[in-house]
Specification:
Largest sheet: 7 strands, mixed
Structural class: alpha+beta
Strand order of the largest sheet: 8-11-6-18-15-16-17
Number of strands: 31
Strand content: 15-25%
């Protein structure tokens, strides 16, 4: 037994228990988060004898006699300073990393209260943030140091909450101080723990599953297999496909290493791995299909009943052959882009328990509670209304939490055992299991006339969609509809296939397929500019779509289109930089392409406050703050009179998945419509007190046309945002600065929007330069510490310029969203900069032979 002082009190525990587990499971001090369990992410940072330390890598035995300080143990003064500084700087997004950042800062402050910016970067080097791009966290730390150094009072702000105000995020303080509740922070008395035994081989027939030895373990509560699934063993994000097995049955074949073969349930999570090792599975190992070429080869085994092609899209407009033949300049290039891992800070976790006699209650951290409700109900074979889902704080998503990962297994175990069950993925499980960004092979042929005006594009896109459908079909659609870029020409022939393999599934990832085709298109533009004798900036400016002109997909650019303004905003930066690359692109808001897409919100008056109720998930983008400001703008009401409820299938209407940069537009407009109805009631003479208990419903439908529409100018999406980005290098090839101009419509909260863009840019830098997800025979080789995630010391200065087009849309007060657009132009801009540096076009990511990554 070891004795350790924690937050001024002495505690005794087993020598071999990790400090993090002791804090969270025994003391229920949950500010320190379990982000990786390997000392790589910094989310569990605490102070040990005044030094920042990772709580996950030390056992109590190694800390005997030492002093441990967590966020909960900070002084009241320190807490109020950190809460204010992080809110003021806009440093909080998903929030999962923030308590660890706070403790790293607290460790720095014990050395100096006058840190330099470089000292702050170094102090935060052990902490990863996937949302913010670090800049605003560093700003927050410097502000906190100033307040503590000067013993200054906390400034008092009175916010109106109107649009355009840097209103502090409504969830900033609880996330900063670790009191905000993520699913893994929840403890229920008598709760069991479950974990899935995963496939031993990417492709193998399961001949038998023997559970007897596991069931004999004293801490084993159950071992569930496919025969225990009461409803449908096939689920999926897209219901009409539903090709993903809940559990692989005896006689069936595994499709990737993350397939669940059995679900082990224990009374203590410490024994889960030990019990899983006792489950004996006999396999007939089969050769995996490791890439689309193998899956498309004649005679290849079918991974799914309908074959190995999940989706095929072919977009044709104009006469590409004739246009290319008449072009003065034509370039053809092949590009290879990798799988990449979302690396959201919070590993997947869900808790399920019975509710009433026939229902089930599920605590989740996904991107749509109604998607989870539908899929769990399908698996259990019950009415969806009996599945009650409550969304907790989500520690980042970026598209990676749209599919079922743990929710269905928690629900299955709770349903079968009639007890509360938690399922938490380890970081390594998360890396193997959830869908990734699609690896793509792209062949792009692009033409222009003698003045550099684009004439045509022929593109072939082959996407590795991995083992299951996930959102591979819609990702392919978006890749194809955006492939030709935000430019004014009309001859396109784009052929795309999403192909099943035995690799981990690929699905939604910030950019949703557009990041890949944008990279190819923008690189080809640089080559055409060179042939035409004009600059990369000039070729983009000459071809940039303007209001009233048709995009290559036929949609007319509306009066909000601001691409020209974005390019002009970065012109001088590009032309004055000795070594620079430029890219411009666009990204849709909303699902579009003729599919149903609805935002919904209820605004109700309860307890003298205006409650905003919508199921739309906040995965870090700050949706609760967005809808608060929309209500304040509409009603003229101060934000302290407004409360945003968390997603709940019983309380909040279905506002669709947080995906496709849609929530600010769709839920924002639904919120505006609902608030407008309340305003009309108030304008008619009623007071809030008189309206107590009243509900006002808002619903917004995005009307679009399907792909392949025969209309001359079909509407593919309800809105587009535009961006232009310049990346400068020093002579050694290190990124020196990023300047980015974004047309995202009306900016609801400038500081929050800038933070979104900075985080997107840093993610794009990682995509271009350092991030990889290597596979060998369909077996992932990545670990969290080897993913290539950028840290604070790696990030260059960023200059963010937010612009609007000539006019504002009426929808959502003119906002268009920027969550995905933020990351798209960065990789091609970096590639262009390296091309300017050494004349070598790098056609594969992450780029080799750079300052960051030497040639293999």
């Amino acid at each position: 037994m070891a004795s350790v002082t924690i937050n001024g009190r002495q505690y005794t525990g087993q020598d071999d228990v990790s400090l993090l587990d002791f804090l969270r499971d025994t003391l229920h001090l949950t500010a320190a988060k379990n982000g990786c369990g390997a000392g790589a992410c910094g989310a569990c940072t605490v102070l040990v004898d005044g030094r920042a330390t990772r709580a996950c890598i030390f056992t109590l035995g190694k800390l005997a006699g030492k002093q441990v300080l967590t966020v909960e143990g900070l002084s009241p003064r320190e807490k109020e300073v950190f809460a204010y500084a992080f809110a003021k700087a806009g440093a909080v997004q998903c929030g999962f990393c923030i308590p660890g950042m706070v403790m790293s800062a607290a460790g720095l402050f014990r050395q100096t209260l006058s840190p330099t910016p470089d000292e702050v970067k170094k102090a935060l080097r052990g902490n990863i943030c996937r949302c913010t791009g670090y800049a605003k966290i560093e700003e927050a730390v410097l502000l906190a140091a100033q307040l503590l150094r000067e013993d200054a009072p906390i400034p008092q702000h009175t916010f109106s909450g109107v649009l355009g105000e840097d209103f502090h995020r409504v969830d900033a303080a609880p996330k900063t101080l670790g009191s905000g509740v993520y699913v893994d922070d929840i403890h229920i008395e008598g709760m069991l723990h479950a974990s899935a035994l995963r496939a031993a081989h990417p492709r193998a027939r399961v001949l038998s599953i023997h559970t007897e030895a596991a069931l004999a373990h004293p801490h084993c509560a159950a071992v569930l297999t496919a025969k225990d699934v009461p409803g449908n063993n096939k689920i999926g994000h897209l219901e009409f496909i539903s090709d993903w097995d809940v559990l692989i049955a005896e006689g069936d074949t595994t499709r990737y290493l993350g397939d669940a073969v059995a679900l082990v349930v224990a009374d203590d999570k410490a024994y889960l791995d030990e019990i899983k090792a006792l489950v004996q599975v006999e396999y007939e190992v089969l050769p995996p299909l490791t890439c689309p070429a193998e899956a498309l080869a004649e005679g290849a085994p079918k991974l799914h009943e309908k074959g190995n092609i999940l989706s095929h899209e072919h977009l044709v407009r104009g006469d590409v052959d004739a246009a290319l033949a008449a072009s003065k300049h034509v370039v053809t290039q092949h590009y290879s882009l990798p799988f990449t891992e979302h690396a959201f800070m919070e590993p997947e976790c869900a808790i399920a328990q019975l509710e009433g006699e026939q229902g089930i209650l599920l605590y989740t951290a996904g991107q749509s509670i109604f998607d989870e409700q539908r899929e769990v109900a399908r698996m259990l074979g019950i009415d969806p209304e009996l599945v009650h889902v409550q969304g907790k704080l989500v520690g980042g998503g970026f598209g990676g939490k749209e599919d079922m990962s743990v929710q269905h297994h928690a629900a299955l175990a709770a349903w079968c055992l009639k007890k509360p069950v938690k399922v938490l993925l380890s970081r390594q499980e998360s890396i193997v299991i959830h869908p990734k960004r699609h690896a793509m092979e792209l062949d792009f042929t692009t033409g222009c006339d003698e003045e550099g005006r684009l004439t045509a594009l022929r593109a072939v896109v082959v996407a590795d969609t991995g083992a299951y459908a996930s959102l591979g079909g819609p990702v392919l659609q978006r890749a194809c509809t955006h492939a030709a870029g935000p430019y004014y020409y009309q001859n396109i022939d784009i052929d795309g296939k999403a192909v099943y393999t035995n690799n981990p599934p690929a699905g939604a990832f910030r950019g949703f397929g557009v990041s890949q085709t944008a990279f190819a298109m923008e690189c080809n533009l640089n080559l055409l500019a060179e042939k035409a004798g004009i600059s990369p900036w000039e070729i983009r400016y000459r071809n940039a779509v303007r209001p009233g002109q048709a995009l290559p997909n036929g949609q007319l650019a509306d009066d909000t289109t601001g691409l020209e303004a974005c390019l002009l905003a970065v012109k001088d930066d590009y032309e004055k930089a000795p070594i620079a690359g430029i890219a411009s692109f666009f990204k849709n808001s909303g699902v579009g392409v003729g599919l149903p897409d609805v935002g919904r919100c209820i605004v109700s008056v309860e307890g003298g406050k205006v409650h905003i109720r919508t199921s739309a998930a906040c995965i870090g983008q700050g949706l609760a703050t967005v809808v608060t400001q929309i209500v304040c703008e509409t009603l003229g009401l101060a934000p302290q009179h407004v409360e945003v409820e968390p997603p709940d299938t019983r309380r909040t209407p279905n506002s669709g998945t947080t995906t496709a940069s849609r929530q600010t537009v769709f839920t924002g407009e639904a919120t505006r419509l609902a608030a407008q109805k309340l305003k009309e009631a108030l304008d008619a003479g009623a007071s809030l007190a008189q309206l107590e208990g009243e509900e006002f419903f808002g619903e917004y439908h995005g009307e679009t046309d399907p792909m392949g529409s025969e209309k001359k100018n079909p509407v593919s999406h309800v809105a587009y945002g535009y961006a232009a980005e310049v990346v400068t290098l020093n002579p050694e090839g290190r990124v020196e600065k990023v300047v980015a101009a974004y047309d995202m419509g009306r900016v609801i909260n400038p500081k929050a929007a800038a933070g979104q863009i900075e985080g997107g840019i840093v993610m794009g830098l990682g995509y271009a330069l350092t991030e990889d997800y290597p596979l060998e025979n369909s077996v992932p080789k990545a670990k969290y510490g080897t993913l290539g995630l950028l840290r604070a010391t790696d990030v260059p200065p960023m200059d963010i310029r937010m612009l609007e087009g000539p006019k504002r849309a009426a929808t959502a007060y003119g906002a268009k969203g920027c969550g995905e657009l933020a990351t798209i132009p960065t990789a091609p801009a970096v590639t262009g900069a390296y091309y300017a540096l050494d004349g070598v076009l790098r056609t594969k990511l992450p780029m080799e032979n750079t300052y960051y990554r030497k040639k293999k």
